[in-house]
Amino acid sequence: MTPGSAVTRPAQRSRNLRTSRWLLVRLGGAVFVMWAVATLTFFAIRLIPGDPAEAVLGGPGSQASQETLDQVRADYGLDLPLGVQYLNALGRLLSGDLGTSYALKVPVAELLLAQIGGTLVLALAALALAWLLALLLSLWSTGGGRIAAALGQGIELTSAALPHFWLATVLIAVFSSALGWLPPVSTGGAAGLVLPTLTLAIPLAGFLAQVMRETLLDTLDAPFIISARARGESERGIRLRHALRHASLPAISLSGWALGYLISGAVVVETIFARPGLGRTLLQAVTLRDVPIVTGVVLLVALVYILMTIITDAASRLADPRLRSAETGR
Amino acid sequence: MHSNPRPRVRGLASVAAAAGISLLVAGCQATPGETSSTPVAGGTLTYASGDAEPTCLEPHVGGNYPQALIAGQFLESLVSRDADGTIIPWLATEWSVSEDNLSWDFTLKDDVTFTDGTPLNAEAVKVNVEHLKDPATESSTGYLALGKVESVEAVSETVARFTLSAPDSALLESLSQPWVAIQSPAGIARGMEENCQAPIGTGPFIVDEWVKQDHISLVRNDDYTSPPADAKHDGKAYLEAIEWRFLPDSASRYAALQGGQVDVIDNAQPDTIASAEKTETLTHLDAPRPGASNRIELNSGTAPFNDVAVREAFIRAVDVNDGIESLYFGSAERSYSPLSSVEATGYSDESLFDTDVDAANALLDSAGWTERDADGYRVKDGARLSLDFPVSTNQSIPAEQSLFEQIQATAKDAGFEVNISLLDLSSWYGVLAENNYDLVSAPYTKVGPDVLRILYHSDGITPAPSGYFANLSQVNNPELDGLLTAASEISDADARADLYEQAQQIILEGFHILPLYDQQNHFLLGTQVKDARALPTVSTPTFYDTWLSGN
Amino acid sequence: MSELDLRTAAASAAPARRSRPSVGEILALGFVLFLLVATVAPGILTAIDPNAINAREAFQGPSLEHWFGTDESGRDIYSRVIAGTSTSLLIGVTATAIGLALGLALGVLAGFGGRVLDFSVNRTIEVLFAFPGLLLALLVIVIAGPGPVTATIAVGLSTAPGYARIIRGQLVGIRTSAYVESARVLGHPPWRILTRHILPNGLAPLVVLATLGIGQAVVWAAALSYLGLGAQPPSAEWGAMLSAGRTYIGTAWWLTVFPGLMIVLTTIATTVLGRRLSRRTGGQR
């Protein structure tokens, strides 16, 4: 054992302690948020006009008899006092049971598990493509002179302003109907993923490129870049090796937000491109007043969002030690 | 998925297709042309539905049109209907009725088994009817259709006896509907959750897999023996499989058909029908639904439409013909009847629906709506002549919503204020249940003219426990009630038709409804799809005789 | 983070590189002025009744008589786009106002309410964030019923947590800033510090936030209209026009393209102006 390590050990221990305390606080916060989301959703959904028993009976306008309605209320525990229903729902949640869909009569957890894959694939593909487009755009607009800068900004602004459903319509009209290059609906293969991914990625890329361009411009003025230039590195090398790495740092911290944004967009995109996924499930459940599914989707999305935020925060802490000391002061 | 890449233009086949439309309506006979007229077995047909994905594939549960659309591929009914509206044998070969019209004997085909191996017998029919009437089944449409059936007993292996509480002239029509199709008793016994996933029937296809929000795979039933009497061939279907997909967005659905990703789409929008008819690669199957026509109901239960003069004024004031022509591109024909044009008992009276704004103004003046306010709307005793028009975005296609907007605009000239609110299905039913409407368009599909009793008998004003009621125009006319009840119990066909004609006269002349057109039900098919037709029961497509050319 | 965070991040990261307005900024200003005229006095821009129906003239392409063509009921699309400006902007502005007001309330509570309040408001914001935009909006609409008012409130609510987080951050920054510290040292009472120093400095960026938010609110409201949950006919709201015209994209592109263009241009113009403003306020502080 060297004298040096004897000195660092308590410091490291305290850092580990700090990190685990941080993680504990974050996880505790996550549990709280999940509980709050579950509670809020449970009671908010009770405010929806209409009888949940009708949702069970093939939707509104059901001509079901009184016996049938009573039967359904008893089957789904809808005749119990609200407080009891709430506790029952919480108890089931704790054991990972999201209940049974009113309309589809299958366990919600099973259904959502089958649906989340499609949405995640779409969201991650769109996220990756958006980052790529944003990177290319910001590299070009910062390094191509005044015209490129102006054009680049114009493209950023325009793409960020495109409503998803409009963009989707235009993409289908051009690439499917007119040119016949790509299928307008999900086909299970990679070709079917192209248009929905583009629809989600283009506006997001617009947002990201705005941030990246500004970071890139700031970084290019930083001292270490100037010294790299002085060392005689090529401008292209500087951009790719140094500036880009710094400009990409916000990537980590923005991904949580971007995922939420993409899931919102998925509601529209999955409907237009007929892709199976959480967004479409949610929209259908909302129109059918299928309470267990709506609750399930909201909880699942909240969970994904919270986990993503914790992961990105942890990654930022790893990448930037300053954050660790700053966090504890909060 | 239909795997062959498809050439965009087809010679002979497309000529055949151009001639095919009217034939398809009539039940799709042989497609003319030499090389393409012999059916070829094999291939997978991809069907894209714009209707909501069913929540349960068993049409006994609930009972709506999306369920009927797909159930027709794997479930069959006791009887069917031919293109003329005559009831024809299907699972039952013959039937007879007792003197008092309270007891019906159905003789079943004796060589039919369900696809799980269970034999089709009288006991199975009994189990099905009991299943439909059991509250735990949560049946709505089928339950209503069998309202007068008290019990079923198995007289022998092949004879099922239905005992009724009152004579029912609509029994056969009711039994032809997919919502009372016959399922395997063993399948029913599995319980609702499993049976909803893959009901077991006697049909030409079998439910293989249901991937929620994506598709349902149907495979051929190789032991199939029970086609309806008007089918074109015997034995198993030509198609090996059907992939049934759900593409809710009408623009992408049509684009998918154009691109060859799918072979058939339903809920085709009028503008795409018009452009499809101009291409050589697509054919159009127009299959109006039976039962009621698409009509706007005038709520005569509350002011201002409790005054017949105001109702007539509204109908005289609005102009719908130009709108139907431009919005539907010639795919919808104006109706002047409460019943669909496929119902032989339908009665029309065009003279009642001439647009005449002067007459409308005179009627309103005489009804006391003499003043107009600053916005040009009529006023009486300080109240504006205002009409609430809740519109369901699920049930009214965009063209229809636009037509309603045009009605809104033309009604304004006569001084009516029409407040359209676009609502999702749940909210729409909510507004109706609260009686907060003056105008409403509510499609109702049922085989046969008995739909008139459901829609216009005063019993239909009393809401079901859920708040739903079918008599949305709230016609309360003892004479009409008498005619409809008598018609539902009479056994003589001509006398029945006569009673229904009188009933329709009362409905039309009382200005209770503004008929628009048949319930639109349009399919577009790639020309490679041959011999597809709609069943003349509730106009759902059947692919038993269908084959794919060029496979 | 919300879109607004991104936008303000982008905007404030940019140093005041130019003081003279660029061509883009002048164009943006011009377009916003055009929108204002269309809102206040649409009669100046068009003489045609936006709701005049003529079924016989449906689906006509752009021409000298109908600059943007006619829609499925033969109505003039140009005059409808002009007439729809006030409705669409009203939805955007009101939604932004609701979001800002809520965000301000939460942000002030968190920024000045002490540790406990800060902690609980932060958790509330986190909970709200866990419902991504459209999800929250959908929930609100299902509960309150669809319509333009609910859509506006829904969009406002779903943007509130984003504003709250930014505002809290700003206020905390100001509270710990040198001049507030010195005011405290000088013995000024807290309420005076709040009204004299903190709020004026914290509120200036709100103008910027609002400008940036309006465009996005218009886009969200349009998405809700597409889902059939927004404005009602015969209202010429852009989102409603867009979703009604979408059906006919294959046969009559002008039904969707022009209202879509208005939404996109409005968003761009307000963003450009918002960024300009934020650079200026950023420079002043």
In short, what is this structure?
The complex is a heterotrimer of chains A (330), B (551) and C (285). Chain A is mostly helical. Chain A has helices spanning 3-46, 52-56, 66-75, 82-94, 108-143, 145-160, 164-178, 191-220, 223-230, 235-247, 249-272, 278-288, 291-319, 321-328.
Residue share in helices of chain A? over 70%
What is the end-to-end distance of chain C?
24 Å
The whole-angstrom Rg of chain C is 22 Å
Quick one: biggest sheet of chain C?
Answer: none
List segments of chain C where confidence is low: pLDDT < 50 over at least 5 consecutive residues: 9-17
Q: Which stretches of chain A of 5+ consecutive residues score pLDDT under 50? A: 1-7, 326-330
Number of strands of chain A: 0
Q: What is the assembly state of the chains in this entry?
A: heterotrimer
- Overall pLDDT of chain C: 79
**How many structural domains are formed by the residues of chain A?**
2
Search tags:
heterotrimer; B: 551 residues; alpha+beta; seven-stranded mixed sheet; four-stranded antiparallel sheet; 17 helices; C: 285 residues; mainly alpha; MetI-like fold; 74% helix
Describe the protein's architecture and organization.
The complex is a heterotrimer of chains A (330), B (551) and C (285). Chain A is mainly α and 330 residues long. Chain A has two domains: 18-94, no CATH class; 108-327, MetI-like fold, CATH 1.10.3720. Chain A has 14 helices and no strands. In chain A, helix 7 (164-178) crosses helix 11. By secondary structure, chain B is an alpha+beta fold. In chain B, 30% of the residues lie in helices and 20% in strands. In chain B, the strands form eight sheets. A seven-stranded mixed beta sheet of chain B has the order 8-9-10-1-11-21-12, with helices on both faces. With 285 residues, chain C is mostly helical. Chain C has one domain (43-280): MetI-like fold (Orthogonal Bundle), CATH 1.10.3720. Chain C is built from eleven helices and no strands. The two termini of chain C are 24 Å apart. In chain C, 55% of the residues are buried. Chains in contact: A-B, A-C, B-C. At the A-C interface, helix 1, helix 6, helix 7, helix 8 and helix 11 of A face helix 1, helix 5, helix 6, helix 9 and helix 10 of C.
